[in-house]
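can u pls check wat happens w/ zinc ion
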Amino acid sequence: MPEAPDLEVIKDFLNQRAKGLLVEQAQVLKPLELRVLTPIDFVQDVAGRSFLGFSRRGKFLLMELSAERMLLVNPMLTGAIQLCPPSTRLVKRTSFRLSLSNGKELRYLDETQMGMAYYIESSQLEEVPRLGEQGPDVLDQYPAFPEFKQGLRRFQGEIKGVLARGQFLAGIGNAYADEVLFAAGIFPFKKRSALSEEELGSLHLAIPNVLHHAIAVLRERTGDDIHLKVRDFLAVHGKGGSPCPNCGGNITTIGANHRLTNYCRQCQPGMLLKN
Ligand SMILES: [Zn+2]
């Protein structure tokens, strides 16, 4: 589940390594994962275009190509971009591959096939599903405290869900929602409407602190394997049963698979309601 910190590092990496390169050839292996929103043949149309730059908007990676084309990736849970030599073994879930003019390949892979890629004319950006439904970007458009509080009021339900859905702020997913709530000392299942002024203040500070720290760590650790997620440095997410870095108590796990919530019962007190 690439989230804003992961995509930020991937975007910068691609700007260093793939900006200006020409797409010489394309191959689509899983046609359903690539939505072409314009009546053209992707393989023919993309060949000969060059990458003008890479950017990020919330949980989307945007690749701008020459002559008014864009390739967008919404990786959801398991989508990933790989930049590698053509001889690198093709993983089973490779959706498409682009041969680049420096001899490398850019591939899109997705283990669960829940993510989506879109090939569009640049003018069609607003037609891309989910892109426009996202809230302000959590890194590029982070609100001051009064706007933060005001914006949050429009959202109901448990605070973790409000953060991870991305309509309040775009770019936080399941993992970093756990991380920011731990840093703020807030119970993940607390209702948004029940948060105190102090908790709102802590959350407002925790979000940029946690994300910028993660970006710094990821820049050090990601290397060339941008398709592999680095998550072992997180404080609580994915750390169920391990000691809390703050109090030493056991980190609790709720849920399963890709929807795990991890938190510390001592540092993030609250009542879990059965339903
Ligand atoms: Zn703790």
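The chain has a mean pLDDT of 95.
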